[in-house]
Specification:
Length: 340
């Protein structure tokens, strides 16, 4: 008998086809809206695997509602929506979708760096409001991106793709991870003209960088990592970009810091509580550029992510090597009857 799978959103057909070919599949057939919690809890009662999105909370309540569950395939590189220790304790495998979104997300980081530094959205709004009356020497002046020092906090795959692009802008690169990364330094250092240095402390990076990009995963250690103290260390001309997870930043303190002009501007793709509405206080500030958590949102990349998640799910449920495991558990059995 085929294993049973539940997919929590309408995905690109290629991904649904992969799951349906190997599993008895049920789908929450809505692209725009998450499956209601009660529906999800009922739907997982007899499934072996779930393909989830970052809008689905996978916690002990869900695990309790899914006694047969063997694998959760999350369609994201981040998995802070999942209680990983609880999954591991239950012997449930978690998979994610790294690599396929690296370059696309790095592109979006650059869109935010450039838009915030050069007041692109503010300028658009000004024109739309009829506020462009003449050219004047200091009209809409921003901060130079080329030649500025780029500080990357959390330089993993996406950070290194951001750094590679920075070499083209003639930007010296500083990065802060828990430990220095010789492979990152070798990779970037091999690009002609590249300058890269490890910042042993976050404070060192914040006080030196002109552009600060945050790409750390959300963990108990990184929650609230950026607050009033950190913003006060930044240069008054600095640009702050967050494309990781909103709760890494204390948003109320960022808003106060932006009002005081340090950082000088911010580009944000992620927020403490998503989605945010039109009345969000960040939108009242002229020096911010906001995007609605779209780091990986291109047609090609979202399709690839869905296919990777589907492939992970099916591999785990059919006893094949799993491409992107997050935790180490033995997936027992093949199929809904435990494969005995
Ligand atoms: C998106 O934010 C992801 O983690 O893939």
């Amino acid at each position: 008998m085929k294993p049973r799978a539940y997919i929590t959103r309408r995905l690109p057909q290629a991904a649904i086809d992969i799951v349906s070919a190997a599993c008895e599949t049920t789908l929450w057939d809505d692209e725009a809206n998450p499956v209601p919690r009660e529906t999800l809890l009922r739907a997982v009662a007899d499934v072996d695997g779930i393909l989830t999105l970052l809008t689905d909370r996978v916690d002990t309540e869900l695990l309790a509602a899914a006694p047969r569950l063997k694998v959760v395939a999350n369609m994201a590189v981040g998995y802070d929506n999942v209680d990983l220790p609880a999954l591991t304790a239950r012997g449930v495998l978690l998979t994610n979708t790294p690599d396929v979104l690296t370059e696309t997300t790095a592109d979006l980081v650059w869109a935010l760096i450039l838009a915030a530094s050069r007041r692109v959205v503010e300028g658009h709004r000004l024109i739309a409001a009829g506020g462009w009356t003449t050219w004047s020497p200091m009209f809409m002046v921003g901060q130079d991106v080329h030649g500025a020092t780029l500080g990357i906090v959390g330089a993993g795959r996406i950070g290194s793709a951001v750094a590679r692009r920075a070499v083209g802008f003639g930007m010296p690169i500083l990065y802060h991870n828990r430990r220095p990364s010789p492979s990152l330094e070798a990779q970037i250092g091999a690009i002609p003209g590249a300058v890269i240095r490890y910042a042993p402390t976050l404070d060192d990076l914040l006080s030196t960088a002109d552009v600060v990009v945050v790409l750390v995963p959300l963990t108990p250690e990184t929650r609230g990592m950026f607050g009033a103290r950190e913003f006060a260390l930044m240069k008054p001309t600095s640009v702050f970009v967050n494309a990781s997870r909103g709760p890494v930043v204390c948003e109320a303190e960022l808003i106060e810091a932006l009002k005081r002009g340090r950082p000088w501007a911010a580009g944000l793709d992620v927020f403490e509580h998503e989605p945010i509405g039109a009345d969000h206080p960040l939108l009242a500030l002229p020096n911010v550029v906001l995007t609605p958590h779209i780091g990986s949102a291109t047609v090609a990349t979202r399709t690839r992510m869905a296919v990777v998640a589907a492939t992970n799910l099916v591999a785990a449920l059919t006893g094949q090597p799993v491409p992107n495991p997050v935790n180490r558990v033995e997936v027992k059995g093949e199929g809904r009857d435990g494969g005995t």
